[in-house]
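I had to read the description of the data format several times before I understood it. In essence, backbone conformation is discretised, so a fold becomes a row of integers matching the chain in length. I therefore recommend that a typical entry be quoted early in the introduction. For illustration, here is how one protein appears when written out as sequence plus structure tokens.

***
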Amino acid sequence: MLRLDAFLPYQLSIVSNAVSGVIARTYESLFGLRIPEWRLIAVLAEEEGLTQQALVARTEMDKMTVSRAAQALVTRGLVSRGAHGSDRRSNALALTDEGRALYAQISPKALELEQRLLQSIGERELKQLKATLEKLKAASDALR
């Protein structure tokens, strides 16, 4: 019989929601950003000139979530839209100067939150956790 509390996908979801909730409250209160908006900023800080389709693939968020987050960031002046090569149907997104400045403020806070969340986990446990998560991700991709 399935016991939900012992079901690993459920446990992963609960942990993910708890961690995301802490982070979401912090980003919302300090920077006025929702998690999808922060994720787009973080990805664009690593690689600018991505299309919304590329952002969907990179973040594994659905198209509508990426579209709404991108529009909110454009409206706030944190992200700009530009031509994407010869394809006139898609736009390349990039951080504006204001977006890069906000990223520079947020990234140390994100790393601090990560450290606080992981302080009860030893280095060896963290390495094993990351390896296990990678294996679970690969297994879930194989089931698609």
Notes: The mean pLDDT is 93.
